[in-house]
Amino acid sequence: MRAMLAFLAALMLAPHTAAGEEVVLGLSSDKVSITTSFNGSEILIFGAVKREKPIPADAPLEVVITVAGPEFPALVRRKEKKFGIWINAASVEVDSAPSFYAVATTGPMDQVLTRVEDLRRKISVERVIRSVGAPADIENAASFTEAVIRIRQSQKLYQHLEGQVALDEQTLFRTAIKLPANLTEGDYVTRIFLTRNGEVVSSYKTSIDVRKVGLERWLYALAHENAPLYGLMSLAIAILAGWGASTAFRLLRNS
Amino acid sequence: MQIYLPIAEVSVNAFLLLGLGGIVGILSGMFGVGGGFLMTPLLFFIGIPPAVAVATEANQIVASSFSGVLAHFRRKAVDLRMGFVLLIGGLIGAALGVVVFNYLKSIGQVDLLVRLFYVVFLGVVGGLMFIESLGAIRRSRKSRASGRPVSTVRKHRTWIHALPFKMRFRTSGLYISVIPPLLVGVSVGILAAIMGVGGGFIMVPAMIYLLGMPTKVVVGTSLFQIIFVTAFTTMLHATTNFTVDIVLAVLLLLGGVVGAQFGAVLGARMKAEQLRVLLALLVLVVCGKLAADLLLQPSELYSIGMVEGH
């Protein structure tokens, strides 16, 4: 509801400056809290295209929406059969890969976006992952980047949602993106691109805050910032539980 | 009910964890084993990262052994002096084990090492137990047929008694060198750190057959030593790898302590040899599944790991 009000306010207050088409955006929530019972979340991204002039007739408007989680370098390893068993052998360090990435479009990727625009704005997931440092002695280094995409797609961390953005009257658009349960904390950068003839005519950027909260936040912070205390606390709980179980069952048996 | 584990960073069903804790608890109550050697591979199967499974399981074993050792203390079935000697060895072993664990983690082979250890130890222990218990069943049938009990005579005068630094262990009624118990302690400590197990399933046979301790003090003494070694391992993993998941530990614990009490009741009603055959089969099944993962071509050859410092 608050988001809706903010959206309406933004509609009315948006400055009448740039000519052409502009994005006015709403989010069902700009915050995702990872609580103890967190089991994934769905965010609704919706908005409108604001324009001063009539709708250009030359080409239909298309919308591309991306949501990207924090980026980290990743070490990708490939298993090989050695001594009769499958063990990790070759490895390639991917300089940067988002922990989550979703692309939603109004139509097939090659129709809504030209390759040049994709390359320049880093929109499709293949363009977002940066890998330059593959050692020369490893054959087929590109397969390691492909593996990152394949593995994360199977974990629903990378989503390719072609045709999943609904667009009405070339003005109102909306899509829903499912965030899986195995999320990494951080700012999830959300970008919206308006395109005509595959060229980006307008773009907009905002971010969704994904955070562990409450007990989750506290335990995670304690485990990393005050590890000895966390370790001792784990042991104290274990000792107490062991003593409690032993005593409880002795009392039960004696009664 | 799904629950998000703060350190493992996965969402799992809380009842599944309680159930797993309960089943392993029943087994440990029935067979007198810690259950870590079953729980850790089960945690791999449900998708807990191996490093977290190993560290958290060490923490859980602290609880179950502490619960068990209290009962043995009441029966005065703990040889403290032997426990301390084993403990010194155990702490050295655990420190070595964590160093090895971290080194292998940095070169990406920690999964392989943990799995190999499991395949080898589960295979050996399961196989030996299976053969031994089948033999016991056959003997008990034969003795029932012939009508007289089978006598078992064991000799304990071996090369172990020729070693220096002898020490008297009153509760166990032994006068032996401290070197063999120290070595047993070191090897169990290494196992505890790498496999996330207490090591009872290795230490108990070693104490009976290698050190010649009387069976009635073996379990209590082993539990006494395991508490400290796994507590030390938990601390090392918590401070160097940040991989102890307290929420996971608590869920497993709750199921485990309840299950263990039921298991003890169930175990008392079944025949010992039949129990051991069942346990041996269970151990071999887990071993077979882990071995198949290593030997068959995996469906996904690639894996994504963290770069050090992130």
What does this structure look like?
The complex is a heterodimer of chains A (255) and B (310). Chain A is of the alpha+beta class and 255 residues long. Chain A contains seven helices and twelve strands. Chain A has a six-stranded mixed beta sheet with strand order 2-12-11-4-7-8. With 310 residues, chain B is mostly helical. Chain B has one domain (2-143, 159-295). Helix content of chain B is 71%, strand content 6%. Chain B has ten helices and five strands. Chain B has helices spanning 14-31, 36-45, 50-74, 80-106, 110-146, 179-195, 200-210, 215-240, 246-269, 272-295; strands spanning 2-4, 11-13, 166-169, 174-177, 302-306. A two-stranded antiparallel ribbon of chain B has the order 1-2. A two-stranded antiparallel sheet of chain B has the order 3-4. In chain B, a hairpin with a 4-residue loop joins strand 3 and strand 4.
Chart the SSEs and their pairings.
The complex is a heterodimer of chains A (255) and B (310).
Chain A lengths: L1 H12 L7 E7 L3 E4 L6 E11 L10 E7 L2 E12 L2 E14 L2 E5 L3 H4 L2 H7 L3 H4 L13 H13 L3 E4 L4 E3 L3 E8 L6 E11 L2 E14 L1 H12 L1 H28 L1
Parallel strand pairs in A: 2-12, 7-8
Antiparallel strand pairs in A: 1-3, 3-10, 4-7, 4-11, 5-6, 9-10, 11-12
Helix pairs in contact in A: 6-7
Chain B lengths: L1 E3 L6 E3 H18 L4 H10 L4 H25 L5 H27 L3 H37 L19 E4 L4 E4 L1 H17 L4 H11 L4 H26 L5 H24 L2 H24 L6 E5 L4
Helix pairs in contact in B: 1-9, 2-3, 3-8, 3-9, 4-6, 4-8, 5-10, 6-7, 7-8
